[in-house]
TrEMBL record:
Coiled coil stretches, renumbered: none
PANTHER family reported in the protein's UniProt record: 2-OXOISOVALERATE DEHYDROGENASE SUBUNIT ALPHA, MITOCHONDRIAL
Pfam families: E1_dh
Protein name: TPP-dependent pyruvate or acetoin dehydrogenase subunit alpha
Gene Ontology process terms (BP): branched-chain amino acid catabolic process
MF terms in GO: magnesium ion binding; oxidoreductase activity, acting on the aldehyde or oxo group of donors, disulfide as acceptor
NCBIfam families reported for this sequence: PDH_E1_alph_x
Entry keywords, A to Z: Oxidoreductase, Pyruvate, Thiamine pyrophosphate
Lineage: Bacteria, Bacillati, Actinomycetota, Actinomycetes, Mycobacteriales
Cofactor(s) needed: Mg(2+); thiamine diphosphate
Length: 363
C-alpha cells in the first residue's frame, strides 16, 4: 500500500497578502517580493494590457463582431500573477475568463478573438503554447488537467498543469473527481480557483457553506491556501510555491484566489439585476491595477516612461486584435471534424457527409 503522506490539516482563512489595499508592503515574510525589477514592471504591463484588451473585446462584441465575451475585469492580478511564475512548458487548462493568462502565455489576442467570434475553436494555436482550449462546460477542464498531469508524471517530465476554475465550478461533480484523483495519484496539478464571488447570478454564500473553498482541500488530503487575488505578487508567490511542490513530486494543491468580477458574467448579462452597486463599489476600491501601481511607485519602480510604454503596447495590441477580428471570414466547416482526432473516425466521417449534404440542400 502506498504510504499515506502527512498533510497539513488546517487552512488559514486569512488570504496571503504581500501588498495591502493601499499599495504598501504587508508584513508577510513567507513569500518574497524581491523579483527582478524588469519582472515587477512586466507584471504591471501585463495587467494593464489585459484590461485594455478586455475593453476592446467588449467593444467588438457591441459592434457585432463577436458572438459573446466573458470579461476578466478585476481579475487581472489573479491571472497574470499565477501564470507569470510558470514555465512555458507547464500546461494551462483555462475555464473561459482567462484573458490575462492567455496574454502572459503569448497567445496572440486575435486567436482569442477568433474563439469568441465563433469562427474557430482556438485549439491548435492555443496548444502550441501549452494551453488547452477554453472550456465552456463548467469544470470539465479540471479532469483534463489532472489527466495531463498524470501523463507527464508517467512520462517522467517535470512539467505541471494548472486547472483554472471558478467558485461555481467547485460545485460540479467533475471537479470532485478531479481533486480526488489528483490527490490519490499525487498528480502534479495545481487547482487555481478564482473566487470572483459570483457564478452568473449565484453568490458565493449560496455556492458553499464550507469555511472557504480552500478548506475543501482538507477533505481531499492536499494543501489548501487562500490568496488575495487582487494582489499580483501574492498570486505569483503562492502559485510559484504550489507549482514547485507539484514539480518536485509533492502532489496537487488547491489555491483559492479571492477576487471579484467587476463586469457582467458575459456580454449577455446584466448584473444590476442581482447585485448592489455598493458591493461593486467596495470591490472597485480594491482594484488590483491602481494598487500595484502605487506599490511600484513606493518602490521607485514606476515612471512616466513605463506608463507610456504600457499605453503604446496596449494600443498596438488593440489594433492587432481589431484587425484580426473585424469581418474575419468564416472558416471551413470541415475543421469541426478534422481537429477532433489525428485521423477522422468512421462516425465523424458519417456526420461530416450528413452535414455536407444538408448544407448543399440549403444552398
Ligand atoms: C456543465 C455546465 N453547467 C452549467 C453551465 C452554465 N454556466 C455557464 S457559466 C456558469 C457559472 C460558472 O461560475 P464560476 O465557476 O464561478 O465562473 P465565473 O463565470 O464566475 O468565472 C454556469 C453555471 C455550463 N456552462 N456548464
Ligand atoms: Mg465565479
Amino acid at each position: 500500500m502506498a504510504e499515506i503522506p502527512q498533510m497539513p490539516i488546517t487552512v488559514d482563512l486569512e488570504p496571503v497578502q504581500l501588498i495591502a489595499a493601499d499599495g504598501t508592503p504587508t508584513t508577510e515574510r513567507r513569500y518574497g517580493r524581491d523579483l527582478p525589477s524588469e519582472t515587477l514592471s512586466w507584471l504591471y504591463e501585463m495587467m494593464v494590457v489585459t484590461r485594455e484588451l478586455d475593453t476592446e473585446f467588449v467593444n467588438l462584441k457591441r459592434q457585432g463582431q463577436l458572438a459573446l465575451f466573458a470579461s476578466c475585469r478585476g481579475q487581472e492580478a489573479a491571472q497574470v500573477g499565477a501564470t507569470a511564475c510558470l514555465r512555458k512548458t507547464d500546461w494551462l487548462f483555462p475555464q473561459y475568463r482567462e484573458l490575462g493568462a492567455y496574454l502572459v502565455r503569448g497567445i496572440p489576442p486575435g486567436h482569442v478573438g477568433a474563439a469568441w467570434r465563433g469562427t474557430w475553436h482556438g485549439g491548435m494555436e492555443f496548444t502550441k503554447k501549452c494551453c488547452a482550449p477554453m472550456s465552456i462546460p463548467i469544470g470539465t477542464q479540471t479532469l483534463h488537467a489532472v489527466g495531463a498531469a498524470m501523463a507527464a508524471q508517467r512520462l517522467g517530465e517535470d512539467s505541471v498543469t494548472v486547472a483554472f476554475l471558478g467558485d461555481g465550478a467547485t460545485s460540479e461533480g467533475d471537479v470532485h473527481e478531479a481533486l480526488n484523483f489528483a490527490a490519490v495519484f499525487g498528480a502534479p496539478c495545481v487547482f487555481y480557483v478564482q473566487n470572483n464571488q459570483w457564478a452568473i447570478s449565484v453568490p458565493i454564500w449560496k455556492q458553499t457553506v464550507a469555511p472557504s473553498i480552500a478548506h475543501k482541500a482538507i477533505g481531499y488530503g492536499m494543501p489548501g491556501i487562500r490568496v488575495d487575488g487582487n494582489d499580483v505578487l501574492a498570486c505569483y508567490g503562492v502559485m510559484a510555491e504550489a507549482a514547485a511542490r507539484a514539480r518536485s513530486g509533492g502532489g496537487p494543491t488547491l489555491v483559492e484566489a479571492v477576487t471579484y468580477r467587476l463586469g457582467p458574467h458575459t456580454t449577455s448579462d446584466d448584473p444590476s439585476r442581482y447585485r448592489t452597486q455598493e458591493e461593486v463599489d467596495h470591490w472597485a476600491a480594491l482594484d488590483p491595477i491602481p494598487r500595484y501601481r502605487t506599490y511600484l511607485q513606493g518602490q521607485g519602480l514606476w515612471s512616466e516612461r513605463l506608463e507610456e510604454r504600457v499605453a503604446a503596447r496596449s494600443k498596438r495590441l488593440r489594433t492587432e486584435l481589431r484587425d484580426a477580428v473585424f469581418d474575419a471570414p468564416d472558416v471551413d466547416i470541415d475543421e469541426v471534424f478534422t481537429s477532433v482526432y489525428a485521423e477522422i473516425t468512421p462516425g465523424l466521417e458519417a456526420q461530416r457527409q450528413q452535414l455536407r449534404a444538408e448544407l448543399a440542400r440549403n444552398d
